[in-house]
């Protein structure tokens, strides 16, 4: 595997012709980057319209498939579920930057694996966090009585609204009025289901607990049948992450290491689609709250997270 660039070299590297990774991009800039990639690398990358957010913003994905071969094992990467976790969508964009713009360094992976990467599932909340309220976590649905937004990672359909969420429309953990009541989660569900035949690995990138988690989120004691495989790969990813910048990462069941909560994206995928491998990667932390990583620290976390992702991708390439 090539050595990914880390600070200070990373910030000198541009993504495409117009964007760099030393500042947080707007939702519009992320869409512009997708357009650049598919224009410059048409035999490798194509744009997918996933859906439309509450406020009418596009939710987009990039399909990465060398020579457009359709029947390889598929990895889906989802990012930007929670508005204030800006490092999450930036990590997904940096992963795209590496495997598309530097495709020649990842021949073994790209010869054997296809990718579907959704950098920003929650564009409305992300933009609201950027412009109005840095602590905002939810979407921007109109709930009535002056309350807005759904916690998208509590709105997926597996055991929805059974533990860990709130029915208060003003709460940061509001689960919504029904499973998939948010257009953002409904769109992601449709994307997952329509690509389920070849799906082998599902990865949710979140921040910033410095963990590699596997299902289930709703329970500390319920595990998928292949929990040993999940545990072994999670431990490998943790070793990779810790070798980069010395941050301490842990691995384990999501409902054991975090407060149990139903309606997460990984529980939906593991509980219904049931691919072999499902994980959440909680990125490195920084700033005052963990998720508000300063731009000066962003580069090393993007590189670190990408190393973790590549450990998973190489496992799929060599074993699935």
TrEMBL record:
Domain Peptidase M14: from-to ranges: 23-316
SUPFAM superfamilies for this protein: Zn-dependent exopeptidases (SSF53187)
Cofactor(s) the record lists: Zn(2+)
Transmembrane segments: none
Leader peptide range in chain numbering: 1-16
Record-level GO cellular component terms: extracellular space
A GO BP annotation: proteolysis
PROSITE patterns registered for this protein in UniProt: PEPTIDASE_M14
Family: Belongs to the peptidase M14 family.
Record's protein name: Peptidase M14 domain-containing protein
Organism per entry: Anopheles christyi
């Amino acid at each position: 595997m090539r050595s990914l660039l880390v600070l200070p070299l990373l910030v000198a590297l541009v993504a495409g012709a117009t964007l760099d990774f030393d500042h947080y991009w707007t939702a519009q800039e992320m869409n512009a980057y997708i357009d650049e990639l598919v224009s410059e690398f048409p035999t490798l990358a194509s744009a997918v319209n996933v859906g439309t957010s509450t406020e009418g913003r596009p939710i987009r994905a990039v399909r990465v498939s060398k020579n457009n071969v359709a029947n390889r094992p598929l990895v889906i990467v989802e990012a930007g579920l929670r508005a204030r976790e800006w490092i999450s969508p930036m990590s997904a964009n940096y992963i795209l930057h590496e495997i598309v713009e530097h495709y020649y360094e990842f021949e073994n992976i790209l010869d054997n694996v296809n990718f579907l990467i959704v950098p920003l599932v929650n564009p409305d909340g992300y933009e609201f966090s950027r412009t109005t309220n840095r602590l905002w976590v939810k979407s921007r649905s109109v709930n009535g009585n002056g309350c807005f937004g759904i916690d998208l990672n509590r709105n997926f359909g597996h055991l929805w609204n059974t533990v860990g969420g709130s029915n208060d429309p003003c709460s940061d953990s509001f689960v919504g009025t029904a499973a998939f009541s948010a257009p953002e989660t409904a769109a992601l569900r449709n994307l997952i289901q329509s690509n389920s035949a070849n799906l082998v690995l599902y990865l949710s990138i979140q921040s910033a607990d410095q963990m590699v988690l596997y299902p289930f989120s709703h329970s500390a004691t319920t595990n998928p049948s292949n929990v040993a495989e999940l545990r072994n790969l999670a431990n490998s990813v943790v070793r990779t992450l810790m070798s980069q910048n010395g941050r301490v990462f842990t691995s384990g069941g999501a409902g054991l290491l975090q407060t149990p909560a139903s309606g997460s994206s990984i529980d939906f995928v593991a509980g219904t689609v049931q691919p072999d491998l499902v994980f959440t990667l909680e990125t490195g932390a920084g700033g005052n709250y963990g998720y508000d990583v300063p731009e000066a620290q962003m580069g090393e976390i993007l590189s670190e997270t990408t190393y973790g992702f590549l450990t998973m991708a190489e496992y799929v390439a060599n074993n699935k």
